[in-house]
Amino acid sequence: MIRLKLLAATALIAGTAQMAAAQEKVSWWYEQATPDQQKLIQQHIVEPFAKANPDYNLVIDYRGNELDKQLRVAMLSGNGPDVVYTAGPSYVAPMAQSGQLMPLDDYAAKYKWQDRILPVFLKMGEYNGKIYALPKTYETLGLFYNKTLFAQKNWQPPKTLDELETLADAMLKDGITPFAAGNANWRGANEWFVTLALNSVAGPENLNKALRGEMPWTSEPFVKAIDRLNSWWQKGYFGKNYFSLTSSEDTADAMATGRAGMMPTGTWQFQNVATYGKKAGSDAGFVGFPSASGDPVFPLGIGSTFSIAAKAKNPDGAAAAINFVFSPEVYGTMNSAWQGEWNIPLKDISNVKMASEVTPLFTETMKSLSAAVNDGKYGYSTWTFLPPATDSYLINGIEEVWLNKITTADFLAKIDESFQKEMKAGKTPAVPAR
Amino acid sequence: MHRLYVLPTLIINAVIIAIPALLTVALAFFEWDGISTPVFVGLDNFRALWDDSVFWTALTNNIIWTLIFLTVPIAMGLLAATMMLVARRGSKFFQVIYFLPVIIATAITGRVWQAMIYSPVTGVTGLLQRMGIDISNPLTETSSALYGIAVVDLWHWWGFLCVIFFAALRQVPAEQIEASRIEGATFFQTIRYVLLPGIMPTITLMMIMTVIWSFLVFDFVYILTQGGPAYSSEVLSTFAYRSAFYDLAVGKAAAISVVISLFGLAATIFYIRAQATEFEK
């Protein structure tokens, strides 16, 4: 009897497998996503993709925070997914270097990506002159501020660094923390502030040179940038509880309630800013981070990238899936529901339909960012453009500067040493010319 | 024929312990990013560690950690266990209470302490701050971060030692304790001359395991501070982890792991020797 049941079960399984085989499976490992977010991906990507491409069966596997490590082991053994999803261009370079990824140039021609995707981003996915990755989302850093509080105190959002410092000093006097900031949940938050200082004090031109290895990181503009950032820390702009607050919820709450006046952070914070602003009954504004000249610089960052594994079982299906994500429909539906994470670098977003409840502040910011990138007026985020070990040191080393364990010169010397070593090993991500 | 019985465990051991361990030792002499082909670099990884101040901070922290855990929880466990032995009433209740933190998952213990005790927003620290007491979250000061983590681990750990010691103490022959009482020994004399010698092998074993575990400590440090701020609570295992998965320097991480195992090896040799002398007696 048991044997009969077993036989029946085997036949059933074999039957379903046969049915599924009619559709070719395309596998894609995704990072951490809450059940609600998984539902969004299912509704707005997987289901419409299945409708548009009946030959392929897109299967998304949520691997959580361990995606990067699992991916690396799987790629080594040749058992990875078809769609390779990494945390940024600095992860792509070593994979491309060791031949684990497929060049995408043929697919780029087939799907006309050159016409549809912002050229800077195609350039950033290049390695040795071939395209290996497409960025899924791009982001920038700027300065949120509590509009309600600013109106009350008759403050203006700062444009230059001097204005920023005068304003912050005034806030300190009133017992308000100038910057809502914290790194308790994400140590990487440290580099947001380093990125801001490097872009607004040293400037993107100098950064571009340093990132191409034409200028050492120990040069004067960078010394000035780190010194200035450190002076903000020493004056207490970042508040007493930086190491205890989360970079997402706690900081958004601190700014919304007026305990802090401003929040230097990224476009991924829009959702929290809206949520906590509603709760506290305050309004928020967003401006580019002040700079020496007064023109804001938007440091460009890439959240994650798509590639196709060299040993992909179904490369055509993977390319079709990636191509599907790069559409105004996906941009509109995903960005409306999940702001900041699906800011796909499309050239033309004029046809995009966004849901009505999305804050106009977000839509405006994204439009001005896309324009700035198109005009070549953008800065560089450390997490996108620095190679992995240098970036990892930058995150931890800046704490040593803030807590007076090392000097700015020591810090930059170590950054430079690590950067030159990684540059020689071919681990630095591509930097488009300015 | 009966030797075949060891075969299954031997195979499992070889596949999941011996081979990876040997590979790790070998990798310590290579430069490898986890992706491309490893390059042989000889002793370079160890030389780089020697010059790395973070390595020395981590090693010092591991030694401090070992010293703390060799003394505080063992003393607390012994004291509570002897007290439970003397005052039998309610000892079951206290055993359960003391042991409870051991069975709570590490991540939960860490988060509870972080949010309910240390946090200046939601925790006791914040409450005291609002009452006007100038106190800061110990995890955020370079001078106290390691001790802040040690307190959490102690809270979670000492109950285990207490229960182990209590079990051992109950094996001490009742006649010996009775005799000492008739002879007029005080409570502390009983502990010193009867109970402690009676459970010495258990204490030695626990101390040696403490040394090994202290060099492996990872969970609480990683959950509470990730080795920060400014590397002040870095230990060897978090340092190895960061090297391997953030810096993509797998060879360096392997070299750190080799250093960790050297300390464990020293403790193990010490233990085996101690065992051997005991047998000779």
Number of helices of chain B: 13
Q: Tell me the number of helical segments of chain A per DSSP (H or I, 4 or more residues long).
A: 20
CATH top level label of chain B = Mainly Alpha
Return the structural class of chain A: alpha/beta
Helical residues, percent of chain B: over 70%
Number of domains of chain A: 2
First-last Cα distance of chain A: 74 Å
CATH second-level architecture of the largest domain in chain A: 3-Layer(aba) Sandwich
Q: Provide the low-confidence segments of chain B as ranges.
A: none
Shape of chain B: globular
Distance between the termini of chain B: 34 Å
Order of helices and strands of chain B: HEEHHHHHHHHHHHH
Largest sheet of chain A: 7 strands, mixed
Helix/strand class of chain B: mainly alpha
Taking all Cα atoms into account, the compactness measure Rg of chain B is 23 Å
Q: List unreliable stretches of 5+ residues of chain A.
A: 15-20
Order the strands across the largest sheet of chain B as they lie in space: 1-2
Describe the structure.
The complex is a heterodimer of chains A (434) and B (281). With 434 residues, chain A is an alpha/beta fold. Chain A contains 20 helices and 11 strands. Chain A folds into 2 domains: 2-138 and 302-374, 3-Layer(aba) Sandwich (D-Maltodextrin-Binding Protein, domain 2); 141-300 and 383-424, 3-Layer(aba) Sandwich (D-Maltodextrin-Binding Protein, domain 2), CATH 3.40.190. In chain A, helix 2 (35-52) runs antiparallel to helix 16 and helix 13 crosses helix 14 (270-280). Chain A is globular. Chain B has 281 residues and is mainly α. Chain B has helices spanning 7-27, 44-50, 53-86, 91-103, 106-118, 124-130, 145-169, 174-182, 187-198, 200-216, 219-224, 236-245, 250-280, and strands spanning 30-31, 39-40. In chain B, strands 1-2 form a two-stranded antiparallel sheet. The mean pLDDT of chain B is 91. Chains A and B meet through helix 3, helix 4 and helix 19 of A and loops of B.
